[in-house]
Design goal:
The protein is an alpha+beta fold and about 1000 residues long. The chain is built from 22 helices and 45 strands. Helix 2 crosses helix 4, helix 12 packs antiparallel against helix 13 and helix 15 crosses helix 16.
């Protein structure tokens, strides 16, 4: 009978980031209904969803002395409540012989692992399920008959980038392309060479899961696989062998899949809009396909049987076909963040879970084909035994076919048949014993292995109490403290596994040298000394010589091996003295690194600063990894974080954005990537690097597919200038030479622009057509020309440039023509009309400025495949005259025949002379304009004297002179005397 997937949603408390951002709760739960409000429109009705269970685990709880979080009100759902509702059902169905599946879905950090695994005394569904299962098995075994048997085996897989890794067999993790997924007519999809470990207690399961998690942590670091982008599948195979009501031996098999899906927000938020490269590596393919499968299954449940369910489109959906739409009783837990800053991701999760409700599966009790064979062999043996014992072979015995006896069998022939029956009986018995022996041998081997692992874990835990050691930090809390490296007495070397002699502490991965560091433990005084060329940070500071380590010091080896140093003696001393210590976290350690690099600060930080700092802390380790990969792959580009203010982006206000600059030091070319584009590229870089270290001959991709390469002629915002409009408010001309500055405030050249009030048709105004007060313009017509004449002294690596700007309420940019030159002549002119002038426009003219953005395209190929010949960096100081001969040599490359060189030189000289003549004429015009402006000022002052006015405001004088008047205009109280 078809049965719907059971869906539960659970909302968790705020995490530290959400607390720092002063987040507000946007979720409410009433019974099994969940409501979510749009933080941008709180007055609107909330969106409502109904599920089988809606668990409120946000507040109304307290922590007991043993660490368990128990309810203080009727609303809070603790771990035991969730297990009673969901886990008990899985247990019951497993005993009945049904396949069961549990999915945990939600964005990274939403609490999936807390519900599934839990921590400390707050155990999740998996440990409670395993504990309950073995309690039941022990009770059954205590009264079990001779033919009763209970077997449990465990497998643990990870799917990353469509590749399958067996976490219980480290040797298979390094297999290029991962393990193969095959299809069998009876089994369905299965993983070839997958390890299945027999376990006989919850402690053994816990040990195996911890082992798999450690392997996952090491693989994540060494192979650059981000844990939040990988799916983990824990498979528990539970087999019961016992007689049924009529005494027949029956075997029931239940496969329980516990699936922790990758962070759901990764599926659609990391792709950069407009980026030439998307994540072709299919890292997100599993989640997007899972969504398509669930949608197709939901459509089928409404009666649309023509819909094709795309199970084959991803590895994850292949392996979970039964769980999603086949022989399984399935539960989904959707983990929710209650914070307003996660509204979009939370709403997406709720919609996903709502679609999953419509899926229907048909679960049946499983009977193993192997045990059917045993039963059939036993039945056949029983018949054979009965025939042998009773002599029930009713074959006619006679004289060899003579005399009308009908051809009976001789006594010897009958005895031969009996012998054959006995041999067949013995063969069947041997096969049955072999089948049973195979399981018993596997169990014995597994128990011996598990016993060794348990003893090893026990010894490691004891050693941690007395021996100084490093423990790892990971962005996924479930992978933190899973890798331990002891600092034993004497000297211990740190390096890669292929070093000779092998190091005492093996760390493999990006920028880790064969001999990376030496740790010396002398009487519990531990020092760390880097080897030549090794990159090591201790508490955020790079070290060049040996330093003494103290308890809870943070140590970064290379770009992404982050550890905490634990000193048992100091820890015990601090505890006795009552010193409270905060345990370092992945975020706090990276925040420290960013702070020491001068990228974040804490004094007087606003909520906007907190958000900015979070983004910096998130991107900094990624930038370090990108630089390390570029260095190892010899891509000749460098990456650095850039904080871009709204003003640098041509905006009056807004928030500062974190971007990443990619720089080619050889050509001076640079590109600015937004956060999404960089993250997208970084994962593609990881895939390229992984192919490189695996020895793939095709790791180095062509330019159009290379994540380290960007076309040189990609548009780049060079800088901005601000042209104030006070002179227009008085209907006076203004011509200025303004400095172009980039996002760091560095000068990149100058630009000459002008703004001229004019007639409706663009003609000049009468000399006396100006206004004393901008308010006089209200209700009148205003027309003016915006001119951008030229730019000078742009960086030498700029091949083409143009300007763009917006005026007043314009939505679209006005663009100049694109000009090829470091000193481009734009000769741009645009006429603007305002009929009539409003108070708002007057305020804009007095207080605002036109932001002119200067954009450029760079020379040469640039990027990772650029010229290997060193070239000068771009000139950042303004220059009025090009050094054209040098620039031509740089662009042309190898020397050409003398005639051609001479011809080019003549051409260059002619061009240079023409430019100089143009500039002389320009300066003559500027001198004439200045003289005209002075005459206008003198006339203005004479008019004021005749009117009896003895003082004018400084801002009025500045606007008359065409200066960059400060905001506030004529409201400035400062004044000067008219004499």
């Amino acid at each position: 009978m078809a049965e719907s997937v059971k869906v539960a949603v659970r909302v968790r408390p705020f995490n530290e980031r959400e607390k720092n951002r002063n987040s507000t709760v946007i979720i409410n739960m009433v019974g099994n209904q969940t409501e979510i409000k749009d933080p941008e429109n709180l007055s609107a009705d909330p969106r409502r969803f109904t599920f089988d269970f809606s668990y409120w685990s946000h507040d109304e709880f307290k922590e007991r002395p043993d660490g368990y979080l128990e309810p203080t009100g009727t609303k809070y759902a603790d771990q035991q409540t969730v297990f009673n509702d969901l886990g008990k059902g899985i247990i019951d169905n497993a005993w009945k012989g049904y396949n069961c599946s549990l999915f945990a879905y939600g964005q990274t950090g939403s609490g999936k692992s807390y519900s599934v695994v839990g921590y400390g005394k707050n155990q999740g569904i998996v440990p409670l399920f395993c504990d309950d299962l073995f309690d039941g098995i022990e009770k059954k075994r205590s009264t079990a008959g001779e033919n009763e048997e209970y077997q449990v085996s465990l497998s643990m897989l990870e799917i990353y980038n469509e590749q399958v890794r067996d976490l219980l067999n480290p040797k298979t993790i390094a297999i290029k392309g991962g393990l193969k997924v095959r299809q069998d007519p009876k089994k369905g999809f299965y993983v070839e060479q997958m390890t299945s470990k027999q376990v006989n207690s919850y402690e053994e399961i816990d040990s195996k899961i911890n082992e798999g998690t450690r392997n996952r942590t090491v693989a994540s670091t060494n192979m650059n696989a981000t844990s939040s982008r990988a799916h983990t599948i824990i498979g528990i195979n539970f087999t019961q062998k016992c007689p049924n009501d009529v005494g027949e031996s029956m075997t029931r098999t239940s496969v329980v899949n516990l699936v922790d899906l990758a962070g759901s927000e990764r599926a659609d938020s990391t792709g950069a809009t407009g980026d030439r490269l998307k994540e072709g590596s299919a890292i997100n393919k599993s989640l997007s396909t899972l969504g398509n499968v669930i949608k197709a299954l939901a459509d089928q449940s409404t009666g649309n049987k023509k819909v094709v369910v795309p199970y084959r489109d991803s590895t994850l959906t292949k392996l979970l076909q039964n769980a999603l739409g086949g022989n399984s009783k399935t539960i989904m837990i959707a983990a929710l963040s209650p914070a307003d800053i996660n509204y979009e991701e939370t709403l997406s999760t709720l919609r996903f879970a709502d679609r999953a409700k419509a899926i229907k599966t048909t679960a049946t009790v499983n009977e193993s084909p192997t045990d059917k064979l045993i039963r059939e062999l036993r039945e056949e043996n029983a018949k054979l035994m009965e025939m042998i014992k009773s002599g029930g072979i009713t074959l006619p015995i006679g004289g060899g076919g003579g005399g009308g006896g009908g051809g009976g069998y001789t006594t010897d022939e009958v005895e031969e048949m009996k012998r054959q029956l006995q041999e067949q009986l013995n063969q069947n018995q041997s096969e049955m014993e072999q089948m049973k022996k195979s399981w018993q041998q596997k169990l014995a081997e597994s128990e011996q292995e598990n016993l060794g692992k348990l003893e090893e874990d026990k010894k490691k835990n004891e050693d941690r109490k007395v021996i100084p050691h490093f423990w790892n930090l990971n962005e996924d809390p479930a992978l933190t403290a899973m890798v331990i490296h002891f600092c034993n007495d004497g000297k211990s070397t740190i390096g890669t596994k292929n070093a000779q002699p092998p190091p005492n502490i093996q760390i493999n991965g990006l920028s880790i040298q064969k001999q990376h560091a030496i740790v010396t433990n002398k009487g519990m005084n531990v020092t760390l000394e880097p080897c030549s060329g090794a990159k090591i940070l201790v508490n955020g500071q790079k070290i060049a010589k040996g330093v003494q380590l103290h308890h809870n010091d943070r140590v970064l080896f290379g770009p992404n091996h982050l550890y905490v140093f634990h000193h048992p003696k100091d820890a015990s001393k601090n505890m006795k003295e009552g010193k409270s210590e905060e345990t370092p976290t992945f975020d706090s350690a990276n925040e420290e690194i960013a702070e020491k690099a001068g990228l974040v600060r804490h004094d007087g930080a606003t909520s906007e600063d907190v958000v900015l700092q979070e983004e910096v802390v998130q991107l900094l380790p990624m930038v370090n990894e990108a630089n390390a990969m570029s260095d190892e792959l010899k891509k000749k580009v460098q990456f650095e974080l850039a904080l871009i203010s709204p003003q640098a982006r041509g905006l009056k206000d807004g928030k500062t954005e974190v971007m990443v600059k990619m720089l080619n030091p050889q050509t001076g070319n640079e590109w600015m990537w937004d956060r999404s584009k960089f993250i997208n590229r970084k994962f593609l870089m990881q895939e390229m690097y992984q192919n490189y270290i695996e020895g793939d001959d095709d790791w180095d991709l062509p330019q159009e597919k290379d994540p380290f390469w960007e076309p040189a002629d990609t548009e780049l915002l060079l800088g901005t200038v601000h042209l104030h409009l006070m002179s227009v408010a008085h209907k006076l001309d203004s011509e200025e030479t303004l400095t172009i500055t980039n996002y760091k405030g560095v000068e990149l050249g100058h630009i000459e622009c002008a703004i001229e009030p004019c007639s409706n048709k663009g003609g000049p105004l009468p000399e006396d057509d100006f206004v004393d007060s901008p308010d006089e313009l209200i209700g009148q017509e205003l027309h003016f020309k915006m001119k951008i004449n030229h730019a000078r002294g742009l960086p030498q690596n700029i091949a083409k440039s143009y300007c763009q700007y917006k005026v007043y309420l314009d939505n679209e940019y006005v663009k100049t023509s694109e000009v090829e030159s470091m000193n481009p002549n734009f000769t741009h002119e645009k006429l603007f009309h305002f009929k009539p002038v409003t108070q708002q426009l007057v305020g804009y003219l007095q207080d605002s400025a036109i932001v002119i953005e200067v954009w450029g395209r760079q020379k040469g190929e640039g990027g990772s495949k650029g010229s290997s010949a060193p070239t000068k960096p771009p000139i950042k100081a303004p220059a009025k005259i090009e050094k054209k001969e040098q620039q031509t040599k740089k662009d042309v490359g190898p020397a050409k025949p003398a005639v051609a060189a001479s011809s080019a030189s003549v051409s260059n000289n002619e061009t240079q002379n023409k430019k100089m003549a143009d500039e002389v004429n320009m300066y003559k015009k500027k001198a004439a304009d200045s003289e005209k402006k002075m005459t206008e000022v003198q006339q203005f002052l004479a008019n004021k004297k005749n009117q009896g006015v003895t003082q004018i405001s400084i801002s009025d004088l500045e606007s008359l002179l065409g200066g960059s008047a400060p905001s506030g205009g004529s409201n400035n109280s400062s004044a000067c005397t008219v004499q």
